[in-house]
Amino acid sequence: MEDRIHNDEYKLINSLKNLSLSPPRIISIDGVDGVGKSALACKIAKELSVPHIEIDAFVQNQQGGYIKYIDYDRLGEKIVHEKMSNHTVVVEGICVLQILNRLNLTSDVSVYVKVIDVYGFWTHQMLLFPPDKSADEVISERKAKRFLLGHKEDIIRYHYACRPHENADYILERRSKKA
């Protein structure tokens, strides 16, 4: 596999184009909120001429969570329909690997998107997944400070359990312009 870590989305897309992916395949795009997963997924889908499925479109009335509010039947039908039509499909959303696993599906190629600050640090790591703490410790600390967790609790638990930021086939590091 070519370089795994990219800071240019077009080089990443070219790496994906150069893979010999015979349909039907699933390309998953993962990361926390606001890192540009949807924009990247749209670009990849357009460049590869394949469908794009945004998991957020299948979230039912969110009430402080994410994973348990997904309409898994509809999402699963959509993905399977695309695969049955012999399409590679780009599936994008937070906790995507856990969601695919719940549907008994796997990602053939995974991409993780993260934002790197001007000092070279991953902006979300120390806030949501510090390496010296457990998921329970991070969640307890946030609750003690009266932070609203909502779907962040799902994101924290997912990152500690699945380690998508370490296990992805490709990582896109977007540079933050903020100091």
Offer a concise description of the structure.
By secondary structure, the chain is an alpha/beta fold.
Explain how this protein is built.
The chain has 179 residues and is of the alpha/beta class. The protein has a single domain (5-175), classed as Rossmann fold, CATH 3.40.50. It has helices at residues 9-18, 37-48, 72-84, 96-102, 125-128, 135-144, 152-162, 164-167; strands at 5-6, 26-30, 52-54, 89-92, 109-116, 170-175. Strands 1-6-5-2-4-3 form a six-stranded parallel beta sheet, sandwiched between helices. Helix 3 links the parallel strand 3 (52-54) and strand 4 (89-92). The radius of gyration is 16 Å and the shape is globular. The model has no long low-confidence stretch (mean pLDDT 90).
